[in-house]
């Protein structure tokens, strides 16, 4: 069974790419076109029945951006299940809230860099 970019999530992935948040636009401008560590990142990638904000297949890394709705109890549980699913596929997950992206993009990018360059020395954010 196909795990990455299932046909069933195609329309939703396209819609999400067309309607990016300000935080998504800001981080995407740093990740796109191999601008970051010469790694290929894709946005709104379907993994199983979930859609990851940003995915680097080469490093098996998902970067998730969380708006305020992610701090509600039901969303916290959903995000936990998503993370567990990604991890079951050997995919690491880094999570950042939108405020961090908008106010401290350089710190976020440094954290991502060190998470990739020295993964054993970084405590992953969840």
Helix/strand order, N-terminal first = HHEEEHEHH
Number of helices: 5
Domain count: the total is 1
CATH third-tier fold name: Endonuclease, Chain A
Would you mind describing this structure in some detail?
Strand 1 and strand 2 (50-56) form a beta hairpin. The longest helix is centred in the middle third of the chain and has 16 residues, at 73-88. The chain has a four-stranded mixed sheet with strand order 1-2-3-4, with helices on both faces. It has helices at residues 10-18, 22-31, 73-88, 98-103, 105-117; strands at residues 42-47, 50-56, 61-66, 92-97. The model has no long low-confidence stretch (mean pLDDT 88). The chain is 43% helix and 20% strand. It is built from five helices and four strands, in the order H-H-E-E-E-H-E-H-H. It has 126 residues and is of the alpha+beta class. The chain has a single domain (7-121), classed as VSR Endonuclease (Endonuclease, Chain A, 3-Layer(aba) Sandwich), CATH 3.40.960. It is globular, with a radius of gyration of 14 Å.
Q: What key phrases describe this protein's structure?
A:
alpha+beta, globular, Endonuclease, Chain A, 126 residues, single chain, 4 strands, 5 helices, 4-stranded mixed sheet
Secondary-structure blueprint:
Blueprint: H1 10-18, H2 22-31, E1 42-47, E2 50-56, E3 61-66, H3 73-88, E4 92-97, H4 98-103, H5 105-117
Parallel strand pairs: 3-4
Antiparallel strand pairs: 1-2, 2-3
Give a brief description.
By secondary structure, the protein is an alpha+beta fold.
